[in-house]
Design goal:
heterodimer; A: 185 residues; alpha/beta; Glutaredoxin; five-stranded mixed sheet; 4 helices; B: 123 residues; alpha+beta; four-stranded mixed sheet
Chain lengths: 185, 123
């Protein structure tokens, strides 16, 4: 089975509502981030080597931009029966070990991934202050730490914070397929 | 592969000289093309014939049957290139490799492939 190439949520659409538990013991809803100048929702998965490869850069970017009132939240949507490394307990350990500066939320039934149309990890959905999708896709153009990669997420953040149009609003997310509970694969 | 090379490989296979190299992959995990190229490069560098058998894993049932711990997986003479592979969980997933520096990657480190090929050649 091949996953769809692009999300069903299109650039210009509003952020879907969600309420999810975080590994920090709190519950987060879409309106928990209403104070943000921009909100980056990033679908992650513990088991995924692409997440591991991008993780340090993602954490660094989140730390840098939180100073400018940008909020990040990560969501894990995999079925833990098929991917035990993605359990809620393992998510908590990962968030602590990697010192995530953002909440790590558990989408147990995969409904939030479906609402966003997320198919891969890592996959970014960047919303502006009005919660309108302005960028969707990969964190940057290369999971390896190569020279000259295109900084899609950073460029989009800079554009939003400077009230400019995002130059590249959509890219193809590269990574592991999200296997949520009802995917039936 | 040229006809002459094919004949040479066939002859070597009959004499038991050629190692059995399996490359198992799942299409949805994007690192397989680069991993296959890396494997073939290692074989070229070692002046070994390209006898890679490519196996696409398409279902969870096939993954269980072949004890497929994730994509890509490389076995030389039936032995996984990663000595301590975690095959407790098999299925259609991307495989995480750790390089000598401890960094996790979707690509198998070159040194793992080289070591496995050398071990098979010297056994």
């Amino acid at each position: 089975m091949t996953a769809p190439e692009l999300a069903t949520l299109a650039v210009g659409d509003s952020a879907p509502n969600f309420t999810l538990p975080g590994t920090d013991g709190r519950t987060y809803a879409s309106d928990s981030f209403d104070d943000a100048r921009a909100l980056a929702i990033v679908f992650l998965a513990n088991h995924c080597p692409y997440v591991s490869a991008w993780e340090e850069r993602l954490v660094h970017t989140a730390r840098e931009y939180e100073k400018r009132s940008v909020r990040f939240a990560a969501i894990s949507s995999n079925d833990v029966e098929r991917l035990p490394k993605d359990s809620f307990e393992a998510m908590g350990r990962r968030a602590t070990e990697q010192d995530y500066p953002f909440p790590y939320l558990y989408d147990e039934d995969g409904s939030v991934a479906r609402a966003f149309g997320a198919t891969r990890t890592p996959e970014v959905f960047l919303f502006d202050a009005e919660k309108i999708l302005r960028y969707h896709g990969a964190i940057d153009s290369d999971w390896e730490e190569s020279e000259g990669r295109e900084e899609y997420l950073r460029e989009a953040l800079e554009a939003l914070l400077n009230q400019q149009k995002v130059r590249v609003p959509e890219t193809k997310p590269i990574g592991c397929v999200i296997k949520s509970k009802s995917e039936g694969q | 592969m040229s006809d002459a090379a094919t004949l040479e490989v066939a002859s070597s296979l009959r004499q038991g000289k050629v190692m059995d190299i399996e490359f198992l992959y799942w299409e949805d995990c994007p690192s397989h093309e680069r991993a296959l190229e890396l494997l073939r490069q290692v074989l070229r560098d070692a002046s070994l014939p390209d006898t890679v058998r490519i196996v696409e894993i398409e279902t969870d049932e096939e993954a269980e049957q072949l004890m497929f711990p994730g994509s890509p997986t490389i076995r030389v003479n039936g032995v996984d290139i990663e000595p301590d592979v975690d095959d407790a969980v098999v299925g259609l997933t991307c495989r995480a490799y750790r390089d000598s520096g401890g960094k996790i990657s979707p690509l198998p480190p070159r040194e793992l492939i080289v070591r496995a090929v050398d071990a098979a050649r010297n056994s």
